[in-house]
Write the structure tokens for this entry.
Amino acid sequence: MDRRVDPRDFRTACADFHRSQRVSRRDLLTAGTLGSFGLSLAGLLEGREAAASLPAIGKGSAKSVILLYQWGGPSHHETFDMKPEGSEHARGQFKPINSSLNGVQVCEHLPRFAKVMDKVTLIRSVTHKFKNHNPPGYYGLTGHAPPLDDQRLRDTPELFPHYGSVLSYLKPSPPDVPSFVAMPARIHDGSQVPGQHASFLGKKYDPLLLLKDPNAAAFQLPELSLPQGLSAERLPDRRSLLQSIDRQVGLKEKLAQARGGEALWQAEFRELEVRCVGVLEDQERIILFSQEAGVLAGDLAPI
């Protein structure tokens, strides 16, 4: 479908895109060449002048983000690209309907989505060339290409963190609110898909996992509830006890490290003693040899 480009479509483009739209010497030479084919520089600059007259767009005001990651969800045939004019084997089984965004159609089973498409950014260029599921899953959750195309790809400190962990690190929520919440299940495909945690950022930025179905009748959040028999008044005592245990464990670890250092020092000292004894024995042999050769021992440099 032929659609005339409206400069307002580019108002929210990134800075690199706008820099790429500046007129360069190459553009002028190109425009001069196109003039012989009936085109002009005025036509080349028309869209850019219209874009420059639009009001500047400030920073986004979003305070939260919901990432709906549909592992095994509907394909493009059932959502935004039904290919109605394609062949029998290429087109989808559902019909397209017009949306609130001129020139963009959606699946007939998404009528409410169609009403808000003018507030949606539809990206059609996301793709990959992997043959297995876990690597592109990691790609989609982190924005970084995996090191290999292997279904056995696992989380390691070398892999990159989830988007939510990065946001938790760069712009954390207030202390009483979790910065990153993941629900209702871990993403699996035979094995857990990597890229769902904070990786090298540290466990502090891992998500709060709520592994319950919110649609279930008996939905509860034990992660945010006190255990039975533990009142809110006793909670500070539990926390103090935990901190005390942590301190004792820390002292024990430091003591173990000190003992380990002492053992290493003793081993090095024993090795030094052996070397010194060997040097003394070598010096005695040199003296005896020198005396037999008629060389005064006093002429030897001390060792």
Notes: The longest helix spans residues 235-293.
